């Protein structure tokens, strides 16, 4: 340790002496040959360093000295590694140097690690050659000046690298629509370091789907990339990487090595070939590709079948890695058809077919369709619109739609972000109300699987007491108009396409029906009232007071979402104007069983009623099938009872029936006693059909007064009530 410190101090002293001689104009070495020899011959240390160093090309733009050191340290001991960066962009220029502890390690590293992948790029390795130096004999002063300039440049580059580590800029792609402000974006990165700047670009008021974040320190940025890249936020997978401006990217591309230049040239040729007019159906879609396959390898493989115009590997946007699929465009469409025709038959050729890595080797006996140990799956390529339609109709989209049948993602709709301008306007009691409501709703839906979120019904809380159902409906209409006005003035973001299509076919049919009937967008508005004892009462009774909450139902989801975003947090003054309430608006929670019963009753009410006198459904020929407690049974029992009671009362009063029976020599068939004479019944019926009236002992019909008919009706009603009570008692006793 002491020896190395002494050597370091000696070198610093020699460098300081040379600098002073240069500043004072001291006499340079007299022997020019000595100077030239010293300049031309590198030192022993330099020669050793060069033999132990390798030159690394084709580095990705995200490469750093730390990553390079970590990559090579996994295989051989590394003394140090350096990635050459652009002084302006602070990004990798595509090449660097790695110095090992031993020259043999450098040779083995070149042989073993050449053409290996680092962040998706194949590295090119060469043994570093000694740097050529000028051999002029009388130019030592200029050499010293160049060395000083190089030292200054190196110092400047190191300062720029330090600055780059302090404030790296990240780009975040595939942002969800819930992140609407730069504050929302910054909240994602606050736990990984201080956010110096956050920006959400937009195009004429519309979100662009990506943003930029500048963190303090490159280590914080790398930690943030590792944590957030690939993270799912509100149903979207985020893609995070270091940001590079277009002009800087062009400068970096110009500084690539010779091998990279060749690759770029090949890519330009492929692009030029792709721009040339091509035949229809000349492109095929390839699945089950090895993840290490490159464009060049894919093109070379299919060149065996026929001339190929270009070949492209599909990259996963979220991970920036190959997705295992690609496209191959042949020069001739007939060649593409022939390639598909001779491909293995027992595979799915649909664009939405199931993917499987496990393949039977017998399906490709000659190995023409095998690449990297995988049997390729080929299909005819389709246009982008057709591919989108196939994906929407495919099983993957169907599974995604069925995954959240309860629509629990709507629970977060209506939540006001902490730190937003609207959140700062809320008083503490309303903040507490919102937090409590969110916890209660989450507990409810987790404890009961029958509960789901309604697409069209809103729950309104914190309503002023003077607002009734009519006033709530007017407020809902005002919300639709206010939202449209805010969007037009650029104060609010419009609904996204995925939000407009969320209701599906049912939403579109409801909207068409509403327009056909000429109705408004608000289907129903209701404020809940209570009595003095606290029980719910009907608003029409006029004897209750508002509980401070209600419900609004719209005809479709788009109007419900529009109303929620305008009404949520909207300030409403009380009737005396002294207090202001900010509404708490959320999607209502419904019970699936209750909703199903409600729909069934609505469908029954829409069915046409049977004409008077016709038998109801289920009673056409087999009698009454409405069950044990059908209304007809009550009617029959009560009618029989009434007939018996009324006859007994008349018999007791006048004795007319007994006298008539004695005169005719038979009993009355309706009395329930004795046996009915068939001949007498037949004669009675014939006389009734002939004369149009029944005959008593005197041959005349007994008239019935209006008072008697009223009494009979009362008796019938009373008998029905008695029978119902008896049946209810029997039913309870049976339990």
Oligomeric assembly:
single chain
Average pLDDT metric? 74
Would you identify the regions where 5 or more consecutive residues have pLDDT less than 50? 24-41, 44-49, 133-138, 347-359, 620-701
Work out the helicity level.
40-55%
Could you tell me the number of beta strands? 27
Note the total helix count.
Answer: 25
CATH homology group of the largest domain: RRM (RNA recognition motif) domain
Tell me the radius of gyration: 45 Å
Alpha-carbon distance between the two ends: 96 Å
Structural class by helix and strand composition = alpha+beta
Provide the CATH architecture of the largest domain. Answer: 2-Layer Sandwich
Strand ordering within the main sheet: 23-22-24-21-27
The figure for the number of domains is: 5
| Overall body shape | elongated
Your description of this structure?
The chain has 735 residues and is an alpha+beta fold. The chain has 5 domains: 21-161, RRM (RNA recognition motif) domain (Alpha-Beta Plaits, 2-Layer Sandwich); 167-244, Alpha-Beta Plaits (2-Layer Sandwich), CATH 3.30.70.330; 276-402, 2-Layer Sandwich (Alpha-Beta Plaits); 425-603, Alpha-Beta Plaits (2-Layer Sandwich); 629-674 and 705-735, no CATH class. Helix content is 45%, strand content 18%. It has 25 helices and 27 strands. The strands form 9 sheets. Strands 23-22-24-21-27 form a 5-stranded antiparallel sheet. A 4-stranded antiparallel sheet has the order 2-3-1-6. The protein has a 4-stranded antiparallel sheet with strand order 8-11-7-14. Strand 18 and strand 19 (374-375) form a beta hairpin. Helix 17 (469-488) crosses helix 20 and helix 22 crosses helix 25. It is elongated. The N and C termini lie far apart (96 Å).
